[in-house]
Structure formats: C-alpha cells, structure tokens
C-alpha cells in the first residue's frame, strides 16, 4: 500500500517570497508522483507530475518539484509567489501497476500582501 | 470543450433520504472515479470503474452505490446508510492504463452535499 504525508497543513507566506510545500511518501513499489492545486469550491487541477528521468520537474504557474528517491520526497517549490497562488495543494502517488491515486491531506498556501 | 461535468453543484438533503450525484465526461476516458473530500483529510476514494458495467469499491464505499451503464456516465448514490454524508464529492476520469500511460486524473468541479 502507499501513503502520502504532507508535512504542513498550512503555509503562510508574503507575496513575492519563495515557498516550499513538503511531501513525503511511502511505497514498496515504484510510483508516479503528482501535485494538484485546488481553488475554493472547485475541482483539482494538475500542476506537475514525475514519471521518470530528470528529478526536477517543471509545471504550470511557475511551480517546480524535485523527486528525491533516497528520501522518498517530492517537495513543491516556487521562487516568488503571487496572491493568486492562494489555494490548497495536494501531493499524490500512483503505483506503476496500480489503479488508484493516493492523496496526502493537503497543504493550504496563504499568500499575504 | 472536453471535460467532466458534475451536478448539482450544491445539494441539501434531509436525514434518511437517498441522493444521486451526476458525473458525465466527454473525454472518451475508460476509467472513472468518485472521491470524498473532508477538511484536513485529503481525498478518499469511494468507488472506481475501469470499464462499462464494472466497478470496484474504494477505501470508503460503505453507504454509497454506483452504476456504470455508459462509458461517459458514473452516477454516485449516497444512501441513508451513510452515517456522515455531508462532504464535498469529486468525480474524476482517466485514460485506461495501457502502454505505460500514467493514468493522470482529470477532475470535475465537485458537488457539495449538506445533510440537514
């Protein structure tokens, strides 16, 4: 089975500051990794995904994430956040041979002016 | 535009009533999913279906039922047996996982159910 731990439930940050949202996972098999974003009362939108190859993955809206196999982590970063980045962010994993996406509990990013 | 449509967006129900949430997709995806979202708990899988006329229970299937009579439709019924049905419900779909496809999920806008 897989599990995902998002280490921070809320992250407050000032506009134009850098941010890192942390994600660790546990799995006995190889997995694909995803970050999704959810704006209030909306569905989830894919930010980026790691399939294989380069461990640094770039996504939409200036976000990027780095896969670290030894630490089983997939932290999300943005060098300079905007007010419009205020949302909830979910890390998720899916085994290569499995059918189900397993989500973390989410991290609420609050960008302050 | 291709996408997933969930309806209704907001729904109120009295205790003891069944309610059905609609999910329709025009992405030609084989697989469809229902997730429940509660604050601070992430998304939990209720049911999923990889092909028409077949579906499997997820992690929290008790008190819910689904059907998959058409490829594009996957309605979810919240029955009176569900002890705590107030939540945000999300439907998703994906291409069937063949040839190394990651099966990335595409989500609808969600339906918020409140039990009065």
Profile the largest sheet of chain A. 6 strands, mixed
Strand content of chain B: over 45%
What is the helix fraction of residues of chain B, given as a range? under 10%
Q: Assign the structural class of chain B, choosing from mainly alpha, mainly beta, alpha/beta, alpha+beta, or little secondary structure.
A: mainly beta
Decide which structural class fits the backbone of chain A.
mainly beta
Overall geometric form of chain B: globular
Which consecutive residue ranges of chain B, at least 5 long each, have pLDDT under 50?
none
- Cα separation of the termini of chain A: 41 Å
Strand content of chain A: over 45%
Percent of residues in helices of chain A comes to under 10%
Low-confidence stretches of chain A: none
| Whole-angstrom Rg of chain B | 14 Å
The largest inter-chain interface, given as chain pair and residues per side, is: A-B, 22 and 28 residues
Termini separation of chain B (Å)? 35 Å
User: How many strands in all of chain A?
Assistant: 12
Detailed description of the structure:
- The complex is a heterodimer of chains A (113) and B (116).
- Chain A has 113 residues and is mainly β.
- Chain A has strands at residues 3-6, 10-14, 19-21, 23-26, 31-38, 44-50, 56-58, 64-68, 73-78, 87-95, 102-103, 107-112.
- In chain A, a hairpin with a 4-residue loop joins strand 8 and strand 9.
- The mean pLDDT of chain A is 93.
- In chain B, the strands form two sheets. In chain B, strands 2, 4, 5, 6, 9, 10 and 11 form a seven-stranded mixed β-sheet that branches. A four-stranded antiparallel β-sheet of chain B has the order 1-3-8-7, with no helix packed on it.
- Chain B contains no helices and eleven strands.
- By secondary structure, chain B is mainly beta.
- Chain B is globular, with a radius of gyration of 14 Å.
Q: Which helices and strands occur, and which strands form pairs?
A:
The complex is a heterodimer of chains A (113) and B (116).
Chain A: E1 3-6, E2 10-14, E3 19-21, E4 23-26, E5 31-38, E6 44-50, E7 56-58, E8 64-68, E9 73-78, E10 87-95, E11 102-103, E12 107-112
Chain B: E1 4-7, E2 10-13, E3 19-25, E4 31-37, E5 43-51, E6 54-57, E7 64-66, E8 76-78, E9 87-94, E10 106-107, E11 111-115
Parallel strand pairs in B: 2-11
Antiparallel strand pairs in B: 1-3, 3-8, 4-5, 4-9, 5-6, 7-8, 9-10, 9-11
